[in-house]
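Sequence in, structure out.
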Amino acid sequence: MESSKQVVPHAAVAPYFPNAGPVMYETLIPVRWGDLDAFQHVNNTIYFRYMEQCRLEWFETIGIDVPQLDRFDIVPNLVGAECRFMRAITYPATVRVTIAAGEVGTKVVQTLHELWVGDVLHAVGDCKLLWMSRKTNRSVDLPSEVREKLMLPSKAGG
């Protein structure tokens, strides 16, 4: 899935989520014909792919080498993903997907996504990332270098 990478200014805010920090990253993803379902809407599973693409591109901006992830011990692991569908996305369109941090715990980071077509919000997503050790197969504290790049102070929980 190709996208147009775009780092957003720190002043941008995710308006849908009251607990969201600033938008940390956004990407533009063209809707492909194959993304559609029988009703000519983007299939519900594709919304999760759009959020995943944004998340992976954001990882790269904070120094997580996604293509080399299998070589690292401490890695982020998606442990929860939700999407609220508000309006159907149809073809042709370009989807602007944003990512902002929500709750930041000792081991878990909540990432909040918004999916826009033009100036219309079509869907929102709430994902949980747990940092884990591959060697021990156990959760670990959020690496300090990642916490610093979240643009939010630490919050209790996780």
